[in-house]
Design brief:
The protein is of the alpha/beta class and about 425 residues long. The chain folds into 2 domains: about 190 residues, Rossmann fold (3-Layer(aba) Sandwich), CATH 3.40.50; about 180 residues, NAD(P)-binding Rossmann-like Domain (Rossmann fold, 3-Layer(aba) Sandwich). Helices cover about 40% and strands about 15% of the residues. The protein contains 14 helices and 14 strands. The strands form 2 sheets. It has an 8-stranded mixed sheet, with helices on both faces. A 6-stranded parallel sheet has the order 11-10-9-12-13-14, with helices on one face. The radius of gyration is 24 Å and the shape is globular.
Length: about 425
């Protein structure tokens, strides 16, 4: 089979690394995004993705890559890969506006002979509902003169151990011909695992994130209970991890964040209702995880009051704004809600996080109201309270412990017991 022209719609955490992977295998790639500023930055070798550096851009074969905001360029592609966000509304129902926008865009070009591969996380049936319907509108026959497939992303931003080269890629198709076509493209850069149909693959992707959400909520609930019992939950997890079977360690935190766990489980919960089924684990895990910022703040205020600190004059330094360690991803980060809650107490807030672009933070109304502080000893002396929300490895935690009156650790960073360190 001849080497295909690949187009990738949506150049975020999923689309841009995928573009680099195809480019490395000498495919001709069109990177499409509506965001014209983003396209201009990419043309200047500026990356907005933590896993892609300027050196990565310099290694690209620019002759075979086009960054564009013109949908007409998509006409040149044989393969159209969709990598756009799939958020939810406030009532926890799917927001398909991005997928529908892509479908509307593709309706303007002739899709005969092309394959559409959806990588965006969806509820079972969404790919066929949105893109299958589009192909039928053009009076095409799926599997004969056009093709449709689903291959969910498995991206973990900031993870240095797992990437496209060693994460198995699920692939499914609307027909066997569609599956074979998609496989012939993806097996050049991934280890392939074929799934019988698109609905199964869609279910699998959401199932993976439901699994994580439920286990995170469980350990968060156990953290609250162990705190009441004056038991170290991290010691419990370490001890339980010695069991060589039937146990997988998950770790508590101040809440969940990122592009998957806070959102994807609700896609399945919503779809389940069409089948007169209520997903109690999904709903309960979401409630527990969403309650963690309130738990952290209420206990933090209690600790401050017990130590007779003046809350309004007590400077609180929040360390780490991203939703997980060693990442600059602030999507759905629990730090946002925690700051909002602390502001209601008129707390005097500052932050430290050298991984996050300060200009990006200024775009957010909540983050823009707190001031950055470096972790020099002379600065730490001015803070009576340090709240660790993301435990980046570059941070000197010994200095924080020695120079801050009260350290509230939500990530279990301190293995030793210190009088001024409280784990929440």
């Amino acid at each position: 089979m001849k080497k295909r022209n690949i187009s990738i719609i949506g150049l975020g955490y999923v689309g841009l690394p995928l573009l680099f992977s195809f480019s490395a295998k000498k495919f001709r790639v069109i990177g499409f995004d509506h965001n014209k500023k983003l396209i201009n930055d990419l043309k200047k070798n500026k990356s907005h993705i933590e896993d892609i550096s300027k050196d990565d851009f310099l290694s690209l074969d620019k002759k075979n890559i086009l960054f564009t905001s013109s949908y007409k360029e998509l006409e040149k592609a044989d393969v159209i890969i969709v990598c756009v966000p799939t958020p939810i509304y406030d009532d926890k129902t799917p927001d398909n506006s991005y997928l529908n926008s892509v479908a509307n865009l593709l309706s303007k070009i002739n899709l005969k002979g092309k394959i559409i591969i959806n990588e965006s996380t969806t509820y079972p049936g969404a790919t066929k509902e949105i893109f299958g319907k589009l192909l039928l509108k053009q009076k095409l026959i799926i599997g004969k003169n056009c093709y449709l497939a689903f291959s969910p992303e498995r991206v973990d931003p900031g993870n240095k151990k797992f990437n496209t080269s060693n994460i198995p890629k699920l692939i499914s198709g609307a027909t066997r011909q569609c599956l074979n076509y998609a496989t012939s493209i993806y097996d050049k850069i991934f280890k392939i695992y074929k799934v019988s149909n698109m609905e199964t693959a869609e279910f699998t992707k959401v199932y993976e994130n439901v699994f994580r959400s439920i286990n995170i909520s469980f350990v968060n609930e156990m953290k609250v209970l162990s705190h009441k019992m004056n038991i170290d939950i991290y010691e419990v997890i370490k001890a339980a991890s010695t069991k060589p079977f039937g146990f997988m360690p998950f770790y508590p935190g101040p809440g969940f964040g990122g592009h998957c766990i806070p959102i994807d489980p609700y896609l399945l919960a919503w779809k389940a209702k069409e089948h007169n089924f209520y997903t109690r684990f999904i709903e309960l895990s979401g409630q527990i995880n969403e309650s963690m910022p309130n738990y952290i703040v209420s206990n933090l205020i209690k600790l401050i009051v017990e130590r007779k600190f003046d809350l309004k004059n007590n400077k609180i330094l929040i360390i780490g704004l991203s939703y997980k360690k060693n990442s600059f991803d602030i999507r759905e980060t629990p730090a946002l809600k925690i700051i909002q809650l602390l502001k209601k107490y008129q707390a005097n807030l500052y932050y430290h996080d050298d991984l996050i672009n300060k200009q990006e933070l200024k775009k957010n109304k909540i983050f823009s109201k707190i001031k950055y502080i470096s972790l020099e000893k002379k600065n730490l002396k001015h803070f009576s309270t340090c709240l660790i929300l993301a435990d980046h490895d570059y941070i000197d935690y010994t200095s924080i412990q020695k120079n801050c009156k009260l350290v509230v650790d939500t990530r279990g960073r301190y293995s030793k017991k210190y009088k001024n360190v409280i784990q929440l």
